[in-house]
Amino acid sequence: MARADLIIKLMQSGSKADQVAFQKTAEDLIAEEKRKGHRILAERMHKALRPSYNSNGIRSVDRMQKLQGELFYEITPERQISSLFLPLVVEEQIREVVEEQHRSELLHSYNLKARHRLLFVGAPGNGKTTLAEALAYELMYPLIVIRYESLIGSYLGETSSRIKNILEYARTQHCVLFFDEFETLGKERGDTRETGEIKRIVSSLLLQTDALPDYVVLVAASNHPELLDRAVWRRFQIKVELPLPTRQQLCVLIDAVAERCETNFGYNTRDLAEVLKGSSYAEAEQFCLDIVRRAVLSHQNNDAKKITEHKLKQWKTWLQPTANKDG
Q: What DSSP assignment string belongs to 10-66?
């Protein structure tokens, strides 16, 4: 919404003593000033804004703080895109989203919107959550992470109501809203094994995500995209696939950990990558960090070959039951 329209809406809600509408419009106006880079003005406006009250006399700020503790949490992102090991096509997709968000005013002037609904798919441990954090870092937005243990309710309509509350909060600011394991909410409605409540949740989710403004970047991650409802799948403007790392990417990861931690693994990087082939980024990084920990404790940072040999034996032993089972 244009700044002039926000000011008019603010005056209308103020003249009608509509505190809820006044609070939301004021927050939208503050978010607009932040997006334009008017940080000092936005901060002064934020300090001047008094907590508003809803129709039940409960302070909306207090209500949102309560929701934040129960349904989601905010983090300040610290991981940069440049610190991740991404396929070139994925990095290009993310940087396009960042540019569109930063130049959204230009797009709006042409009656276009920045893309803001992304789906990350891939096996566990390949960086979906980390990529969401890196996206938030590049955008300079807070990252809002959903708490599934509190979101899913046992009563009719409870989950849909909680989703609505979360999205209402997200609309008050520029942010990245992250749903991990999204198949939990967006399951295929044609699945006869699912209850009617799941179908209502999906329908509600579709309506509410469609209404999100483009300054709320919705990121959903799924290990099982085949379980997603087809209508949910179509809602996402950008689909990002995060595959298992290649041998070359594992080499880059191993060298990066060794350099960062100043540890010599005592093995050829390509040989280590060959052993770790088929593992996720998280598994490979954990393997390297396990060696670094033991090397630090035993003062063997300069040559950790014996430790690496021991960890390789452990790694192969851990893989053996899986190989037998598959065979």
A: HHHHHHTT-HHHHHHHHHHHHHHHHHTT-HHHHHHHHHHPPPPB-TTS-BHHHHHHH
**Number of alpha carbons in the 13 Å side-chain half-sphere of residue 137:** 14
d(CA 317, CA 311): 10
Q: What is the pLDDT of residues 209-242, one digit of tens each?
A: 888 999 999 999 998 888 888 888 888 999 999 9
Measure Cα distances from 62 to 12, 145, 260 in Å: 24, 19, 43
Query: Quick one: which of 145, 227, 136 has its CA closest to 174?
Result: 136
Distance, first Cα to last Cα, the chain: 59
Q: At what angle do helices 88-102 and 128-139 cross, to 10 degrees?
A: 30
What lies within 8 Å, CB to CB, of 128 at 6+ separation is 120, 121, 122, 180, 221, 242
Please state, in angstroms and rounded to a whole number, the distance separating the CA atoms of residues 164 and 176.
16
Extract the tokens encoding 66.
Answer: 């309560």
In sequence order, the 6+-apart residues with CB closer than 8 A to the CB of 193 are none
The values of phi and psi at residue 243, to 5°, are -80, 170
The label of the residue with tokens 């404790």 reads 297
In terms of DSSP bridges, do strands 143-146 and 72-75 run parallel, antiparallel, or are they unpaired? antiparallel
Domains by residue range for the chain, with CATH: 3-48 (no CATH), 61-241 (3.40.50.300), 247-326 (1.10.8)
Dihedral Cα 98, 102, 107, 108, nearest 10 deg: 130
Per the rule left: phi > 0, alpha: psi between -120 and 50, beta: everything else, 48 is alpha
Tens-place pLDDT, residues 71-100:
888 888 988 998 888 889 999 999 999 999
Comparing C-alpha atoms, which of 127, 126, 120 is closest to residue 93? 120
* Whether the predicted model's global pTM rises above the 0.85 cut: no
